[in-house]
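Dear H.,

Thanks for agreeing to be a second pair of eyes. The structure we're designing against is below in token form, covering all 379 positions.
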């Protein structure tokens, strides 16, 4: 393989309602594919995995040509060195966790991978050792998804495809499982292509985002910038944009904690109630764009404890609303704030203007404390 393999996709596939016709390339460790139901996300993943014989075009990862228009036949799925986790996991229901993991042993050995070593690492990473002898029928939904992910890893893949691996779980459980997906991307060093319908999963996991709509690429690029585009937000069916910001715990009190957003000195953020995480721990903070108030001068004598100075980068029309993107700190992604069109006009919200973001301590949602994958680190 090349020193820094990247994924190149140019393919077409006839579907029931439209033709999937996509073209993109990504050098990111984790690439996410986002879009509404029926937009072609799973069909794209299945085509890359070699499960759609009707797909035509080019699919290349580094020097490996999995699908080539000039080739007599595409590479079969088993030759692509891909680990694939479909939506429902598709475990062997009457077998134990250990037996499900060993289903990938033959493929791992054929790929020159030490199965016992990779199984041990996977069990530790996904915290599955206590479940080894249990039947998968006795497991919870979250445990089954972790086993499905472990089985894919134990086959010794060079590339990982995840098709909405958390979609069948309820929201609190999806959030609790996010750290496991991030550990896989970080500790195994595998390139990951993740299909999801959840913008929070995108911001927590991905370095590159592709948005599909009706079988076409609607937008592509850095996740937070793409998610803030009006044409992408419209696909969320009116859901408010949620800012997901990296942070670390600075200090803890009985009823509140202070965080530092971003790297270095960071921007301080007070949250309540207090977190159990210790000073120095990394985490992600979610703040809805609807829960942030904008002021053009620093307010006095108000209940909001967080008053953060920022600079407007852009103001985008979103139907009757306006989405204001503001720079809070050089090391942070832009923060998005939703206001009405009337507010934007009356306050003269324009790029370059200094504003203050007002955030209540109870408006912040904490997600996990696993460090983000470093896209510059060697695989």
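And this is the sequence the design step returned. I haven't edited it by hand at all.
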């Amino acid at each position: 393989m090349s020193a820094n393999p990247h994924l190149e996709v140019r393919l077409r596939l006839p579907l029931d309602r439209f033709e999937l016709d996509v073209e993109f390339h990504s050098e990111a460790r984790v690439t996410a594919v986002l879009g509404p139901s029926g937009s072609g996300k799973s069909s794209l993943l299945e085509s890359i995995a070699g499960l759609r014989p009707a797909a035509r075009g080019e699919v290349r990862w580094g020097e490996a040509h999995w699908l080539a228009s000039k080739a007599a036949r595409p590479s079969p799925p088993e030759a692509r060195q891909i680990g694939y986790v479909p939506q429902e996991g598709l475990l062997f229901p009457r077998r134990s966790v250990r037996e499900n993991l060993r289903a990938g042993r033959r493929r791992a050995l054929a790929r020159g991978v030490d199965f016992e070593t990779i199984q041990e690492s996977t069990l530790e990473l996904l915290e599955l050792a206590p479940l080894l002898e249990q039947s998968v029928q006795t497991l919870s939904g979250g445990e089954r998804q972790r086993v499905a992910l472990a089985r894919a890893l134990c086959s010794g893949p060079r590339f990982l495809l995840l098709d909405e691996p958390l979609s069948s779980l309820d929201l609190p459980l999806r959030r609790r499982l996010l750290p496991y997906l991030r550990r896989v991307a970080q500790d195994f060093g595998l390139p990951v292509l993740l299909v999801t319908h959840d913008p929070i999963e995108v911001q927590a996991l991905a370095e590159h985002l592709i948005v599909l709509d009706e079988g076409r690429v609607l937008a592509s690029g850095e996740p937070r910038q793409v998610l803030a585009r009006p044409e992408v937000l419209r696909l969320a069916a009116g859901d408010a944009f949620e800012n997901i910001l990296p942070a670390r715990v600075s200090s803890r009190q009985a009823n509140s904690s202070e965080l530092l957003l971003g790297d270095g000195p960071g921007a301080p953020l007070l949250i309540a109630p207090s977190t159990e995480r210790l000073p120095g721990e990394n985490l992600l903070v979610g703040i809805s764009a609807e829960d942030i108030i904008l002021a053009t001068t620093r307010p006095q004598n108000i209940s909001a404890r967080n008053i953060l100075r920022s600079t407007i980068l852009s103001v985008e029309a979103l139907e009757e609303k306006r989405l204001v993107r503001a720079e809070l700190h050089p090391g942070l992604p832009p923060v998005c704030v939703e206001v009405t069109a009337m507010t934007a006009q009356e306050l003269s919200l324009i790029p370059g203007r200094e504003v203050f973001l007002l955030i209540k301590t109870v408006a912040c949602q904490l997600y996990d404390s696993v460090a983000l994958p470093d896209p510059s680190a060697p695989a």
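Two observations from my side: Residues 28 and 44 are 18 Å apart (CA to CA). The chain has two domains: 7-239, 243-366.

Warmly,
E.
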